[in-house]
Amino acid sequence: MEELQRALGERGLSVSSLPEKGRCLIATKDFSPGEVIISQEPYVSVPSNTSRSSKCEVCFGSDNVKKCSACHVVWYCGSACQKADWKLHRVECQALSNIEKDKLKYLTPSIRLMVKLYLRRKLQTEKVECPVIPTTVTDNYSLVEALVSHMSKIDEKQLVLYAQMANLVNLILQWPDLNLKEVAENFSKLACNAHSICDSELRPLGTGLYPVISIINHSCLPNSVLIFEGRTAVVRAVERIPKGTEVQISYIETAGSTMTRQKALKAQYLFSCSCPRCMKLGQGEDIQESAILEGYRCGDDKCMGFLLRDPDKKAFICQQCGLARKLEDIKDIASEVKTVSDKAAKSLASGNNQEASSLYKTVERLQLKLCHPFSLNLMHTRESLMKIFMDLSNWKEALFYCRLTIPVYERAYPGCHPMRGLQYYTCGKLEWLLGETENSVRSFMKALDILRVTHGTNTPFMKELLFKLEEACAEASYKLKPADEDD
Ligand SMILES: C[S@@+](CC[C@H](N)C(=O)[O-])C[C@H]1O[C@@H](n2cnc3c(N)ncnc32)[C@H](O)[C@@H]1O
C-alpha cells in the first residue's frame, strides 16, 4: 500500500477511505479539463467474441484475426499480439484444452477472465526470484485482493451461480489446491470492479480488470471520464478538479431518471448513490425531469407539458394544461410499442435492415403518440433508425434521425459528456457526405470541443476528427471564395 501511495503521489493522487464509500481516489494537485489523471493496463482482459465477430486477444482489433490452432478459443491479429500474450496464453492454452468440446459453450468471458486471473497470479508468484511475469507496484495480485466483493450482501441465488462458475473454473484449471470459495468471491469482485472495454466510439469490445482504476468511486455527475485507448484505461478530468477533491467517474449510463440510475447501481454495485443528482430524488425538479425522460406526453399534440399520475391512479394529468390521459389509452399504445419493437429487434438481428427500418418507423410513430418529445425511449428508437440508415448508406435519412436526437442528447448528457461529442461527430460526418460543408464544420467543432477533453487529441480516432475538420474548413472557405478569385 505504501508503495502504491508513493507511485500515485508522483501523479498527484492518493488513496483515502470514506466511511460511506470505502476506498477512494483523491487529487493531491489541481487537474484541468482534459488532463490525464491516471492510466492503467488491465491485470487481465478478454474480448467479447461472438459467433459472428472475433477479436484479437491483445488489441481487440477484428481485422485478419486467426484462431490459436491449439486451443481454438483465442484469436490473434498477427504475430506481434500473439507474442505479447504468449507467456500467459501458453499456460491458458493448456488449461483450455482440458475442456471437452461440448462444454466450450460454457466458456463465457467471465469464466475466461477468472481463469486468466488465476494463471496470471500463478505466473507472478511462482518462482519468486524470477517470476515468469514480473510484478510492479500497479500490476500485482495484492491489488486484486484489496477489491471489494460485497459477499455478505449477495443473495442466495447469485451465490449458487458463483459457486457453479467456480466449479467450472476448477474443471478448466484442475488445480488440486484451488480455493473454490475464493474463486466465487472473486466472481463477486469482478461484478462490481471489472470494466467494460469500449472503442473510442464507446462500443463495447470486451471486459478488463484494472485494480487501480477500480479504486475510483461513482458519481452520476462525475468530474472525470474513463475512456479506453486499445486496452489501456485512461481517466481524464472533464472539469477542473481542485486539490483535495475526490476523483469520480460514472459506472452507468447517466441518461436516465434518478430512480433508474439508483436501481442500476444497487443491482450491480450494491450501493445507494448520494451524488448531488441523486440527492434531488423526489424533489420537484427531479420529478419533472424523470417524467420528461421516461414518461408520457400530453394528449394535446401542441402541449409540451409532462404528465404525472393522478392520486386515484386511473389517469395521467398534464402538469401544464391539466388535460388527463386515461391509463388504458397509455397501456394500449405501450403494448403496441412493445410488440412492434420486439419484431423490429428480430429483423435487425437477422440482418433484414429494410424490414427493421420500416418497423422502427412504426415504433417511432407510436412513441410520438405515447412519449414526451424528450423521451429517452424515443431517442433510442431514432438512434436505431440512424444506424440502420447508415448501414443502408442512406445518408439523408440517417442525418434526419441523427439531428432529431441532438436536442435530447443536449438535455440527457449535460456538461462534457463523450456521448454528446460522439453524436455531433456522427452528425458532422453525415453532413460532410451530403455536401453540407458549413454545417459539418459546425458539428465537427462542437464534437471537438467535447472530445478533446474526454479523449485527448493524440489517438488515431481524434487525429481523424481533426483531419476531417481541417478538410471541411478548407472546403467551406473554398466555397465561400468569390468566383473571380479563381481566375
Ligand atoms: C469499483 S469499487 C470502488 C472502490 C471501492 N470504494 C473500494 O473500497 O475498493 C465499487 C464499489 O465502491 C463503492 N462505491 C462506489 N461509488 C460509491 C458511491 N458513490 N457511494 C457509495 N459507495 C460507492 C460501492 O461499494 C461499489 O460497489
TrEMBL record:
InterPro entries: H3K4_H4K5_MeTrfase, SET_dom, SET_dom_sf, TPR-like_helical_dom_sf, Znf_MYND. It comes from the Eukaryota. The keyword Zinc applies. Pfam families: SET, zf-MYND. Keywords: Metal-binding, Zinc, Zinc-finger. Gene3D superfamilies: 1.10.220.160, 6.10.140.2220, SET domain (2.170.270.10), Tetratricopeptide repeat domain (1.25.40.10). Residues 56-93 form the MYND-type domain. GO terms for cellular component: nucleus. Residues 11-252 form the SET domain. GO terms for molecular function: zinc ion binding. This is Histone-lysine N-methyltransferase ASHR1.
